[in-house]
Amino acid sequence: xxxxxxxxxxGDERGALLAFxxxxxxxxxxxxxxxxxxxxxxxxxxxxxxxxxxxxxxxEVELNWLRLAQQRENERARTQxxxxxxxxxxxxxxxxxxxxxxxxxxxxxxxxIASVDSMDDTFPLPDAPWFPQGEEVxxxxxxxxxxxxxARHAGHADIIRESLDGRTAFGLxxxxxxx
Length: 179
Hints:
Oligomer: single chain
Helix content: 55-70%
Strand content: under 5%
Number of helices: 6
Radius of gyration: 17 Å
Distance between the termini: 17 Å
Strand order of the largest sheet: 1-2
Number of strands: 2
Largest sheet: 2 strands, antiparallel
Structural class: mainly alpha
């Protein structure tokens, strides 16, 4: 969803990258404004994706990449058996609690990036068939990857929301500003 990303303070690479990450987060958050639980968990297209499921997925993806960058264990790590649950709100899970969880993860990401010595600091990519073995990536890469991941899913969210009730990015921006 289109928004203007404010320019960073001159030379503030961390601030610039975090601003672009936040712009994409905002697009996904706006996609659930004013929806009932039933709407947020419905599938209005041929896709398996729902807005509630996308919200949960991006929150967990950000947490996973943050824990990789921190070189800490991910307390919400998924297994092959539970991977699909990352794309669905389970019984008792709500949009509001998922938004709160993601806000906490977002704050942790900003705090961590502020604490690293350099954006050139690295961490190893996980052992997976789609990553080169033994490769390390920078903190810069981490934030750019979050922009990429979130933007992909923001596009999905645009289509799902418009399919649900006809609301588009500009209408949701206005609705958010009116709140």
